[in-house]
Design brief:
- The structure is a homodimer.
- Chain A contains 10 helices and 11 strands.
- Chain A is of the alpha/beta class.
- Chain A folds into 3 domains: about 70 residues, Arc Repressor Mutant, subunit A (Orthogonal Bundle); about 110 residues, D-Maltodextrin-Binding Protein, domain 2 (3-Layer(aba) Sandwich), CATH 3.40.190.10; about 100 residues, Periplasmic binding protein-like II (D-Maltodextrin-Binding Protein, domain 2).
- The relative contact order of chain A is 0.14.
- Chains A and B meet through α4 and α9 of A and α4 and α9 of B.
- The first copy, chain A, binds a DNA duplex (30 and 30 nucleotides) through α3.
Chain lengths: ~325, ~325
Amino acid sequence: MIKNASLRQLKVFEAVARNLSYTRAAEELFTTQPTVSIQLKQLTDLVGLPLFEQVGKKIYLTDIGQELLKVCNEMFEALSRFEMMVSDAKGVKAGKLRLSVITTAKYFVPRLLGLFCQRYPGIDVSLKVINREMVLQRIVANMDDLYVLGQPPEQMDMVAEPFLENPLVVLAAANHPMAGKKNIPLKSLATEPFVLRESGSGTRLATEKFFSEHGIKIKVRMELGSNEAIKQAVIGGLGIAVLSAHTLALEHSNNELTILDVKGFPLHRNWYLAYHRGKSLTVVAKAFLDFIETEKKLLGETYLTRISGFPSKNIQSKKKKM
Amino acid sequence: MIKNASLRQLKVFEAVARNLSYTRAAEELFTTQPTVSIQLKQLTDLVGLPLFEQVGKKIYLTDIGQELLKVCNEMFEALSRFEMMVSDAKGVKAGKLRLSVITTAKYFVPRLLGLFCQRYPGIDVSLKVINREMVLQRIVANMDDLYVLGQPPEQMDMVAEPFLENPLVVLAAANHPMAGKKNIPLKSLATEPFVLRESGSGTRLATEKFFSEHGIKIKVRMELGSNEAIKQAVIGGLGIAVLSAHTLALEHSNNELTILDVKGFPLHRNWYLAYHRGKSLTVVAKAFLDFIETEKKLLGETYLTRISGFPSKNIQSKKKKM
DNA sequence: AACTACGATAGACTATAGTCTATGATTAGA
DNA sequence: TCTAATCATAGACTATAGTCTATCGTAGTT
């Protein structure tokens, strides 16, 4: 009986129905495909009829599945409306949001804040774009409400909510010998000079961890303190680099850079919205958290599709079908 | 954030909002008041604003609580609609329901079946009204789909869903010396002759258990094999009896009987819809289970208010206010 | 003041919900 | 045929949801 279902099951169902893919839904929900599979099986058992049918490798909603999707949308819409009313009642009319983000996040955070400020026009925002080291310092000093990080610091008791994919890609100059090749073996990179961010940066940590796990020792030719500098060094032929695909989002001309199609890349990382666990969040900070939680489905689609050359054809082709 | 709420919490909230009483809601949900209290506290913490306010001993919905009640009703209505669609899709258009009930249940089960058959006109119903002993035999022999009992047999692996209150009351002749008295001490009954059902009946088990737990030894003057016979014996002055309040529901003239206001009574028992756990229920039986699950709120109000002399003033006065 | 009724809280416990890794089955494409 | 992609299942584990009994606090009534 559907009334014994859980909202979690319904959320999972809705994500699968929208994506028409268990795996995509799992990624979106920051969980694994078997979890999605099990949740859907439980829901299907409750309903007593199949909600999806599989034709070849594709899944389609059954008629009953279509009806349940409508019901889900009604329900979640009703809950969203209620949340708006609650925020209004709480007087989220004015206040200040203090947000510190690491530098790569500057490519998308201002847009997020723009949307947020449209919804809550009375809220002031203080945005600091700084490197990871300084973010960590500010966390310790409790100087902000929330932080955007690519790698939450494990040595601190933080709550970290993933809200956006942060794919790390291999960048090379457009005229690089490997440009345009498909499925470049990872070993091929061992002879390439690398340009990396400074020790301590999240991207560097992730890069070193990945190559270390695959038994590849990379040659670091140069360390630079900013993403822009790294991109210029790559364009200048000084080496290749691993950077967040988000760093390409604002380029008005990407002809000088290319993303290499390397096996194992892009590394699927996330952006996290984080705060110290003991921190008592302000109403405004909670509103921003809720806003991000509500909008994060849209975020995944909006920002990655704007990155030229990023292998996001799955998302794009799916979008055309829907 | 309300989206992390559970449907259970919302159900509890809705029951409290409708009843404007934690205790009444707990009874309706067949659970305890602290459970309700905790669930509501969790929900309130999620919302971040009070959902009820207490003025004196009465609780009232806050404005936000009112809104949440609307949202709940929308959501549960959407789910109910979906269940209808599912039943249709499953083809609950025709079939047979085999139901056996103990004799006291004859006072209300036909009405239930009437409502059920209105909704599913193509379904045939076989209803057997028999004593408890025979019900148990039929369970063992797997002769029916579902059973209505006042006391599920503990020695069998049964699923038993409570769906209606079955209050056990003390009946006496209208001219009994204790008639009209308030808060009659339990000890006063020790000197009264009792007329009981046969050993093995659920009512008798419950009666003996209650008095045994209170250290009262009752004098059994007579055992009779039917509720009607017991009532006639009570009217005739042969003693008092403990019977389900439901036995009074069909009386066109209750002037010869009265319900004594004894401390500890009415005993709050339930009617159960039960089936053997290993039983694979037919689509029709499942539909009846779902029907009862959906309608059980209404049942509690409808049937008990019809019992003349039953102390149900709380329900009646609340109904007038709503 | 004593008693009753009702909601709130503490503490303890059980049930179940949710999740993961590993692996199997199936399909489509090269 | 092989590889890749995707969903299904098994088994194990953790987290949390739900619940109860006992008791306290408050308000209203007698």
